[in-house]
């Protein structure tokens, strides 16, 4: 009998993966391109991709595409890791970089990564976790929106004796395995750069100060300021920004630089201040944290602290694999990825020093 067309497509894609033409983490061509390549309908392509996803060969992410997990073990045993992403912005490329790093590392140990997108809603996050528990996954990677509020959801995983690891954010009062970046030292790098540029009136702008990662960045900022002999008061922490008041303080030279807890708030601040007639960096220097993909594409390139998101993902999957295999002796091992300073046009020497 003639082989179904979707099976032909499926086997051809599997052969490309096994031959190394498609590597773990690679994105498959768009459905339209596959239709042209195999001269079949969209229904046939979707059927082939659905079966590959069900078998753990690829991961399909809504509005983003299909990504290679890697070849499966010969015995076809179920080696599955769930990645729960409680994301504010599903189109943030940094999430995709973390997923790619985790997929590449997981594939090396014959694990398939199942990505489940959640949001700020705890009930949705819990439903995603339960869904993956029902699939008998071997472990969880979790990127939480608020790791403190999600504590009960972690306990649901613990009750099922499944190992899990938090990515980027963690709860200091609920120890867990963790993969993130060196927030404290990154903040010191950023603050020292502003001080090197002769800025002494530097404020810290927060995005979500309830996150321990932002608190660590603030602590690094405070440390660098005090080491330079500069005082830090409660007024130097901006959690709800009055942009008219901030613009006025800049014009009065009461503020000459801002260290922002992430690039999103830095970009927002640049937009708000330039909209009020201020010039960056002539009137105020601004530095961010993350090296978000849009940071270098602004009319004013944003100086920032760069995280290696793919490395964070790889570290997360590697550590979780060690936990699953019983190779760790601590219940709260943390791996911190290094950071680097990236200088662009949003910072300059203080002209009033």
From TrEMBL:
Protein name: GntR family transcriptional regulator
Entry's transmembrane regions: none
UniProt keyword annotation of Coiled coil present: no
Domain HTH gntR-type: 3-71
InterPro entries: LacI/GalR-like_sensor, Peripla_BP_I, Tscrpt_reg_HTH_GntR, WH-like_DNA-bd_sf, WH_DNA-bd_sf
This protein's UniProt keywords: DNA-binding, Transcription, Transcription regulation
Statement: the UniProt record of this protein carries the keyword Transcription regulation: yes
Superkingdom: Bacteria
PANTHER family per record: HTH-TYPE TRANSCRIPTIONAL REGULATOR GALS, LACI-RELATED TRANSCRIPTIONAL REPRESSOR
């Amino acid at each position: 009998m003639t082989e179904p067309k979707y099976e032909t497509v499926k086997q051809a894609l599997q052969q490309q993966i096994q031959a190394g033409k498609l590597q773990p983490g690679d994105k498959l061509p768009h459905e339209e391109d596959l239709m042209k390549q195999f001269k079949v309908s969209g229904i046939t392509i979707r059927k082939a991709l659905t079966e590959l996803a069900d078998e753990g060969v690829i991961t399909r992410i809504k509005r983003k595409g299909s990504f290679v997990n890697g070849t499966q073990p010969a015995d076809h045993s179920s080696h599955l890791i769930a990645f729960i992403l409680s994301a504010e912005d599903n189109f943030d490329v940094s999430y995709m970089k973390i997923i790619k790093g985790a997929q590449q590392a997981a594939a090396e140990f014959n694990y398939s990564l199942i990505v489940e997108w959640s949001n700020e809603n705890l009930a949705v996050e819990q439903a995603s976790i339960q869904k993956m528990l029902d699939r008998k996954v071997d472990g969880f990677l979790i990127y939480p929106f608020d790791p403190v509020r999600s504590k009960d959801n972690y306990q649901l995983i613990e009750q099922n004796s499944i190992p899990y690891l938090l990515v980027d954010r963690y709860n200091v009062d609920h120890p867990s395995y963790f993969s993130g970046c060196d927030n404290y030292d990154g903040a010191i790098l950023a603050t020292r750069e502003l001080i090197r540029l002769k800025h002494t009136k530097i404020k810290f702008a927060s995005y979500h100060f309830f996150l321990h990662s932002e608190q660590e960045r603030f602590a690094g900022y405070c440390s660098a300021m005090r080491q330079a002999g500069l005082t830090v008061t409660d007024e130097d922490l901006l959690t709800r920004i009055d942009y008219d008041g901030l613009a006025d303080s800049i014009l009065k030279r009461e503020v000459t630089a801002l260290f922002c807890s992430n690039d999103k708030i830095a970009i927002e601040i640049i937009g708000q201040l330039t909209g009020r007639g201020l010039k960056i960096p002539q009137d105020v220097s601004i530095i961010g944290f993350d090296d978000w993909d849009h940071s270098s594409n602004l009319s004013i390139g944003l100086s920032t602290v760069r995280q290696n998101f793919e490395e964070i993902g790889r570290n997360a999957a590697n550590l979780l694999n060690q936990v699953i295999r019983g190779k760790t002796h601590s219940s709260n091992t943390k791996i911190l990825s290094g950071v680097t300073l990236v200088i662009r046009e949003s910072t300059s020497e203080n002209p009033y020093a």
